[in-house]
Amino acid sequence: MKFADVILPLPLEGTFTYGVPDTLQSVIAVGMRVAVPLGRSKVYTAMVLRLHDEEPSMKWKNILHAIDNAPVLVPEQLKLWQWISSYYMSPLGDVYNAAMPAGMKVEDAYHPRMEQYVELSPQYRDSNALNILLDQLHRAPRQQSVLMDYLAISHWDSIEGSAPTEEIREVTREELMNVSHATSAAVKTLTDRGILQQYYKEVGRLNLDGEPHPEFMKPLSDAQQQALDSLHNQMDSHAVVLLHGVTSSGKTEIYIHLIDEALRQGRQVLYLLPEIALTVQMTQRLQRVFGHRLGIYHSRYSDAERVEMWQKQLSSEPYDIILGARSALFLPFQRLGLVIVDEEHETSFKQQDPSPRYHARSAAIVLAQMYGAKTLLGSATPSAETYYNTQTGKYGLVTLSTRYKGISLPAVEIVDVKDLQHRKIMRGPLSPTMFAAIREALEKKQQVILFQNRRGYSPMIECPTCGWVPHCKNCDVSLSLHRNMNILTCHYCGYSYTVPKCCPSCGQTELRSRGFGTEKIEDIIRDAFPEARIARMDLDTTRTRNAYERIINDFSHYRTDVLIGTQMITKGLDFDRVGVVGILDADTMLNYPDFRAYEQAFTMLTQVSGRAGRKGSQGRVILQTRSTKLPVLNHVVAHDFKTFFSELTDERRAFHYPPFSHLVYVYLRHRQEHIADAAARTTGNLLRSVFGTRVLGPDRPAVARVKNMYVRKLILKLEIGISQQRVRDYLRSVQRQIDGDKRFTGLQIYYDIDPL
Questions:
Q1: Mean per-residue pLDDT for 65-72?
Q2: Burial of 274 from C-beta contacts in 10 A (0-12 / 13-18 / 19+)
Q3: For residues 95 and 79, what is the distance between their CA atoms, to the nearest angstrom?
Q4: How far is it, in rounded angstroms, from Cα 523 to Cα 430?
Q5: Share of the chain above pLDDT 90, in %
Q6: If residue 282 lies in a helix (H) or strand (E), which one and from where to where?
Q7: Is 200 helix (H, G, I), strand (E, B) or coil?
Q8: Over 90: is that where the pLDDT of 322 sits?
Q9: pLDDT of 109 above 70
């Protein structure tokens, strides 16, 4: 008897063993999907991980049937799943759920796209019969006209005897109606009379248009060519290389040349970006050169499109280049040779919720190693861990320190908001300096980007009489005001309700908003500059699939003068005419209670500043803050990454934070606060019995209740060199002890490895 260890798409640890019936033993292979029973009536689509002859010790059930004729996973994918599950302490079932499109996890969820075609009935595929038919239709001129249009576009009008002189082309019903301006009734009449007949054909959802044009690659500048040559040298001795290039230094053109080299060697390329928004511009740049050899993959595509992409990558003609967000690394690759992780510093590469809480940069490096491929990391502001790895020799390093065509880095001006407000010169979110800079840019026909890292109209409303503030009923946060929709919303769980007409506590009718979100900034700019064309880019305006493309294209083609947005607008976008970038409130980043706050603030401020002055004259950045004395701001003004990194690593080394330690966050959640507290204390004691002072907490996170679950947190700070496997083994044993304690029934406990 043969057996199969399978992965179920459920948040369950390990694999499940099923018997392989004799009728399936020659059919089933590792990497194929099979239907398996679970419980009394459930049937799941499982993934075969291993085939063997080891009879399980407990009663087993048989596989019901095979879903695939061939594996839908290549061996490297299964290895990646297992690595993610092990390293990030996530059930294999969660990795399965994250990796595969929903349509491949349910037998009948995916349906191929079918198109309706029309063709000439066989009895009229002769010139004599066709001429007689056309004469008969002279009393039905509309039908005759539609038929003649069909004959022309299908090439049946070239028939001589029974042989057409031109190749017959297929015609869709929709194409015929568009060309002939016919109604569906007219086409139906022709089919009812047996003149035309209809049939359905499966058509793909993927775009396969566009011939490659390698000649469209731009020639590299001297600095770019030197960087490319250095990359070749570094890749000879390092599996992972960092390209550290200042904003607008032309890193993308270097990527394009490296991609072309990989394709010439017959290898595939994976190009990862942190945000879906970035794929819009990058798609245009890559398609211009590589045409139909480029495939796009991210979560804004429909599930059916993602299934077809998966199938194409398994076919004999896969895409040579895959461009996408973090989920693209789960696609099957047959000959992967190069992985590019652009904007590698971005926190968006880290999956937060749900499990698996993996970092796409780390997973991409592991994936590349499995294929023997090289990994190129690119950033103007590398993460502390990545840059430290270059300093210790683990990664290679190539530096590109000048902007393309020698354009100067933007001039950064710091505005002291605290002083202006104290002197009553500034009352709203924009200083006089900011207003003047915007006005000057608009007069020069330049564009403006305004960065406010908070969406909505304002983060809260308040009753001026009694101080009442509306809070979420499910989470420990105030509700944000979205005035355009007249609702108060929780940005953690989505709970919302209509803004009350009066204070429910005291009856005051004039509730006031506190703070400024992107929606309020938009209103202020619209009032101050009524002639300006304004757009807003945040989570509220980019919910539809094409929203990113519309907003970015409008700004790229100068149909928008002022773009207001959250961190979406800080990440690698390339615009020609941006003269001014305004950072409205740097303090929201600088004052965040986390050891990474200054690193992330430096990164975000530098990145958004880099959107200014990318073509032509030097750009101008206005940075508003109440904390003008902070050293990190001086480094932003001076564009001085090296000094910032030196000071940052001195601090991290002194307090044993990454890259000088490994962090593990332990989270516990329960619907009852006292149980969450008790479980956190017990877990802390168990961890301290082995790890001692390496354990910090338990503590309450900044938001201690989310979706009616009370949250507690412990931190493990582990020195470099400690056995990661032994740590994980003990953490799993602690989890089993807590799960088995009847006092903590209903408790959720999970781990965040290398948290951000």
A1: 94
A2: buried
A3: 12
A4: 12
A5: 72
A6: helix 276-290
A7: strand
A8: yes
A9: no
Which of 693, 664, 695 shows the shortest CA–CA distance to 681? 695
Q: Are 571 and 275 in contact (CB under 8 A)?
A: yes
Per-residue burial over 446-467, b = 16 or more CB atoms within 10 Å of its CB, e = otherwise: bbbbbbbbbbbbbbbbbbeeee
Give the integer Cα–Cα distance in Å for 392 and 389. Answer: 5
Sign of the Cα torsion 516, 518, 523, 529 reads positive
Average pLDDT of the residues in 134-145: 90
Whole-model pTM? 0.85
Q: What is the pLDDT of residues 400-409, one digit of tens each?
A: 988 876 777 8
Q: What is the CA radius of gyration of the chain?
A: 30
Residue with tokens 């940075």: 623
489 strand-pairing partners: 480, 496
Rounded distance between C-alpha atoms, residue 299 and residue 279, angstroms: 12
Q: Is 493 helix (H, G, I), strand (E, B) or coil?
A: coil
| Residue 667 in this model has a pLDDT that exceeds 80 | yes
Task: Render pLDDT for 268-311 as a digit per residue (tens, 0 to 9).
Answer: 999 999 988 788 888 889 999 999 999 999 887 888 889 999 99
Contact 538, 424 (CB under 8 A): no
Give the CB-side neighbour count of residue 67, counting CA atoms within 13 A.
Answer: 23
Beta strands in 278-410 (DSSP E): 294-297, 321-324, 336-342, 374-379, 396-400
Instruction: State the residue for tokens 């568009």.
Output: 178
Q: Which residues contact 723 (CB under 8 A, 6 or more apart)?
A: none
The mean pLDDT value for 201-211 works out to 72
Token code pair at residue 638: 């001076």
Q: How far apart are CA 592 and CA 702, in angstroms?
A: 10
Mean of per-residue pLDDT scores for the chain = 92
In order, the DSSP letters of 611-663 are TSSSSSSPPEEEEEES-TT-HHHHHHHHT-HHHHHHHHHHHHHHHT-TTSEEE
